[in-house]
Write a structure and sequence with these properties.
mainly beta, UDP N-Acetylglucosamine Acyltransferase, domain 1, nine-stranded mixed beta sheet
């Protein structure tokens, strides 16, 4: 296990998990039964990688992220700090997927250019949602369960459906915001947000 930690504070890796020795796993991260973390992946500190989750080669996961059971994160995805990926959610990496070439030869990794999904700080992906690469989900945005994301999602946006579309805004707590004059307010924390052409931002930024 010492080869799979970044310092003397060890990660917890269940014996049934498959963590490549070339992966880098941060302090206090927990990797549960049957999860797989491939070569050259980087997983930060204080993360949770759930049962049967998959982290592809070279994927980068920040600190304090949670990948729930059976989440599939394909390379070259980038997850910033505090990201949540729900059960059975998928981050794809192939724009035009085929098993074989036009000549009928089985494709290998050299036969396509992988493109990744980027999840910015605090973003949450609901259960069984699919993010179709290349796509970026903004800071603290929330993708509803079962949604299919095919276009970039603004910061703090709440998106639902197939294809995903914005139906509102959420705050840092993930709770839908309510309109309050020219601003938006979180009913849980009271924090206020302002809307602009670029999306939403905290009023106190």
């Amino acid at each position: 296990m010492s080869e799979q930690t970044l310092s003397d504070a060890p990660a917890l890796v269940e014996p049934t998990a498959d963590v490549d020795p070339r992966a880098r796993i941060g302090d206090r991260t927990r990797i549960w039964h049957l999860a797989q973390v491939r070569e050259d992946a980087e997983v930060g500190s204080d993360c949770v990688i759930g049962r049967s989750a998959y982290v592809g080669p070279g994927v980068r996961v920040g600190d304090r992220c949670k990948l729930q059971n059976q989440a599939l994160v394909y390379e070259p995805a980038v997850l910033e700090d505090g990201v949540f990926v729900g059960p059975a959610a998928v981050l794809t990496n192939d724009v035009f997927p085929r098993a074989v070439t036009p000549e009928g030869r089985l494709k290998s990794a050299d036969d396509w250019d992988a493109v990744g999904v980027t999840l910015r700080e605090g973003a949450s992906i609901g259960a069984r949602a699919v993010c179709v690469a290349p796509v970026e989900v903004g800071r603290w945005a929330l993708v509803a369960a079962g949604a299919v994301v095919v276009a970039d999602v603004p910061d703090f946006a709440l998106v639902v459906g197939v294809p995903a579309r914005r139906v509102g805004w959420v705050g840092h707590a993930g709770v839908p915001l309510v309109a309050d004059g020219e601003e938006w307010r979180c009913p849980q924390t009271g924090r206020r947000y302002v809307e602009s052409g670029a999306g939403l931002a905290p009023a106190d930024d």
